[in-house]
Amino acid sequence: VGNDRDLAGTLRVLAVNQNRIFREGLRIFIEAQPNVMAAGFVEDADAAVLLFAELRPDLTLVDLNLPSGSGIDAIRRIRGIDPDAWIIGLVTYEWDDRCREAIAAGALSVLSKDLIAEKLMPLIRTGPQVRQPASEGVESKSRWRSFVKAFLPHGSLRA
Amino acid sequence: MKQNCIRILVVDDHAMIRKGLTATIEPESDMEVVGSASTGKEAVEVFRATKPDVTIMDLTLTPEMSGTEAIRAIRRESSKARIIVLTAAKGDEDIHRALKAGAATYLLKDSLGDDLIPIIREVHAGGGTIPPYVARKVVDRLTQPYLTEREVEVMQLVARGLRNKEIAASLGVSELTCHGHMRSILAKLKVQDRTEAVTVAVRRGIIHLE
How confident is the model at residue A148 (pLDDT cuts 50, 70, 90)? Predict the structure, then answer.
């Protein structure tokens, strides 16, 4: 894949997230970055797939916490429309079995939502040509599975 | 600067949520965001410095001070503090603790529509409608057996992987006493074993992963 997404031009971002306050914050954040614009912000997977087909954004941010796994499904459907689609999955916290599923479905990387301000632009600048490791901020929070298996042997808890 | 407006403090560890809340509130002519904070400690400091009318508070903040602890600390600073919880935490115990700590109402991030602005006005005026889902959970908490403080302590240790013997030593009680706590916990949570107990306790907000 060549660098046909001209990073000197404007990178158009489509985002799908259920939480309107989050969407609003993300839109403002993205609009404030140089050479990046919010192409479309929607709240469910179906709208995201439709809008992807219509707008062909350079980057799609998919919330992996959409109801009943529809975030993973959206990634698969978007990659069905464009096998080169650049998709980053967004996760909240521990429920990160979905991180692996997102990568398997075709997301290039997964980013923890609380690290967007610090990490999204560096990921964007790296571009879609490199498969990015899964992923910033996720590993430290990926305790759920190990917790179920081993009761968090070294972790600490709070009430 | 706006005149006679509702002064609001926004507390959330996610920068996108802080931005989104500010962007949602700022267009209102009678509201102003006077401060924001990303941790419980910072929330208390900014509260002290800005004396907001209404504080919008997330619960899942840093481990050293949770949102519920921050609510308690802020209410100690000022018993008039009006606090709206806005969180993704849905457990009945989370809801119970936050309301008991002094929150005026409790909103879930994912189901929030256009209602935030009217709710801010309502809470500022002294009210605080509880959304149906949250009300349901309050009733659940009232009608189900709940764990004593001691049992919550035991659950925290169980979740760390400690056996009864180790839990007993850690709490300074006999192993038999610890065994009794465990039996009571399993019955109250309606579960068969320790693994299931931890899962249910986390889901209900009785204990938290960091």
Answer: very low
Q: How does strand A36-42 pair with strand A59-63?
A: unpaired
Interchain CB distance below 8 Å, B116 and A21: yes
Give the nearest partner residue to A155 out of B19, B153, B209, using CB atoms: B209
| Residue A91 near residue A98, CB atoms below 8 Å | yes
A67 — pLDDT class (breaks 50, 70, 90): confident
Half-sphere exposure of B158 (CA within 13 A, CB side): 28
Exposed, middle or buried: residue B3 (CB in 10 Å: 0-12, 13-18, 19+)?
Answer: exposed
pLDDT tens for residues B63-106?
A: 789 999 999 999 999 999 999 999 988 999 999 999 999 999 99
User: Is residue B126 packed enough to be buried (19+ CB in 10 Å), middle (13-18) or exposed (0-12)?
Assistant: exposed
Residue A88: enclosing H or E segment and its boundaries? strand A87-91
How many angstroms separate the CA atoms of B138 and B142, rounded?
6
How do residues B116-161 score in pLDDT, each as one tens digit?
999 999 999 999 889 999 999 999 999 989 999 999 999 999 998 8
What's the half-sphere exposure (Cβ side, CA atoms, 13 Å) at B78?
Answer: 15
Of B15, B159, B198, the CB nearest to A116: B15
| pTM score, whole prediction | 0.79
- CA–CA distance, A103 with A99 (Å, rounded to integer): 6
pLDDT value, residue B93: 93
